[in-house]
User: What shape does this take?
Amino acid sequence: MKNNKQQNVFAELNIFRGTNSTKPEFQTFKVPFQQGASILDALIWINDNVDESLSFRYSCINANACKECMMIVDGQVEYACLKKLQKSGSKLEPLPNKTLIKDLVTDIVPPKEKLLS
Amino acid sequence: MKLIKTDVLIVGAGAAGMYASISAAKSNKKVMLCDKSLISRGGATVMAQMTVAAALGHQEADHWTHHLQDTIKSGQDLCNEKLSYLLCKNAPEKIRQMRDWKTNWANDNARIRQVLAPGHGVKRCCYVDFLNTGPAVARTLRGEIAKLKNVTRVSGLTIIDLVVEKNRVIGAIGLNTEAGEYVSIGANAIVLAAGGLTQLFARNSASKNMGGDSHALALRAGANLMDMEFVQFFPIGHLAPRLVGMDPIMWDPFRYKLGGRLLNGHEEQFIENYGGEDGDAYTVGRDLAAYAILKECEAGRGSPNGGAWLSFQHLSKAELDEAFGPIIKKLSANDIDLTKQAIEVAPIAHYHMGGIEVNDSMETCVKGLFAAGECVGGANGANRLSGNAIPEAFVFGEIAGASAANTISETPHLSPQLHQNVLSNLLIELSRQPKQKSQFQTVTSRKLLFELQKLMWENVGVLRSKQGLKMAINEIRRMKNDIFPNLKPASGTVFNTSLMDWLDLRNSLLCAEAICLAANERKESRGAHQMEDIPFKSNKFTKNQIISMIDGKLVSRWQDVQKLEFDLERKRWAKV
Assistant: This one.
């Protein structure tokens, strides 16, 4: 995405925003489309260029090793790093069966790995 | 502020941190293992695909002294030989231990399969099929830790700064990212095991967590760094076509098993022109290969996207399927057919030989502060052998954990006042009023990191020059002193990415300055440090370079290399 030469083609991502204590809403971002790019590439592009407050989990970026970037893409459970960005755009939502933390981040931390309150 | 007490705090939950936890837990002391991402998933370990070097001798006759000889040779006279010795001598036992814990090393029954990797004299590198070494290792250690009642695991805890009293570490302050709350941790000993810093370079194989956290925490606590100028550039990182779901260093195992041909833009073999040997095999050292590819690009003989071609077209589909079946399927999902096309590869920042200075108990010059894994400097000198990173994590992790558990506290667990002071200093840093209001309003931590990565790649990367380094130091200091203080992340809320990015960048800028300063002082070319305008090695610089922070300023000094008084040929101590 960083060496994108085709700035003229855009895809629209309709992304869930909010926390458990705010009114949920969807926000639309226009991202440059590049052949072969992943949904995660597009989310990172949004963080880099448009909105650094958009929250989603990831560590390994490209390797599908950390398994942190799971979310709902157009109604299906997907790893954002494997799912390709489509010209027609996508709707992104947090995992429905996990407690929402913020935006696309849900509580996937095993109970025994939490800081005791 | 929440207060937590533990005997040993371990920062970073990759192989080094997890091994340290298991080892520290043997003492029955309370151990807390934390990671800013998820336990066992966030760092470099889980991304490692191959290989783990250990002189098991399961394929050919081997001895740890041979592994040590190869390691020292690759390190070009800069290895802290005591650390290299610990690494090589203890690696085989760790591989067997992991096997007992059910890591499924590729094997022919009792014999673990070992392959040849560049720089190793014999077949020495173990792996888990297919390209699955890191995930398998991470899963094993995670499972072992879960059995230990005295180890508390905490995911999503970012350690921000260490608390030091009279040159003794007494704890840390952190950010619980999901709650958006600061916490105080009192600890008798701390092990830094948060990995490397290759994220500082535009082209890298890093996860987003590898921005030099351990190094920055150590420096600010008063510990020393050494040989920071030595960053290893992996020569054949994936460049094009776009490939998702695979780690960019994936072509290395392909080359181990299948050879493959490295060609320039004119489709000619070229490694031989730079004094290396390659042919259809894979024997050229990493530093030379990276150098040669970029030199070909500079001469206008690069591949279309600025790298080299890697071709397996001389192999049949059956041969490819047999060696890497599941991976060939993944490639096919990315529309890549290796029987029909070559792919493009280029050097990427992959590993850091430099790091925190420790003694052979893995303790720094700050009492109670230890380090383990990639963030330790010295074991690999000026250039690391492939396969040495994972055994280093196991061996140093084990030693650091045991040493940390044996640290007897001379001070009370927790000094709330000192912890509060450290946090207050951070909050002051966060709430500073911008000096230059208008100019930097649109700059964010992410944008400044992007600029830093570009600067480091272009001037402090594979090919360096006096002028480029001087410019880079000035520019990094400008970023650190003039731009960074103007950045204003949002205040503490749940999963506050802008605050997390700011904390990462705070560490990365300090590390970048340390690397640049060290590179500028080493006026020679050696191993991974290649100066275009000083293209030779100089005996004067057969020394380790120590970087410390004095009154907020980074300073460099030279130190004699720690040699081992061991006769490698005769396998005995030279002076007994």
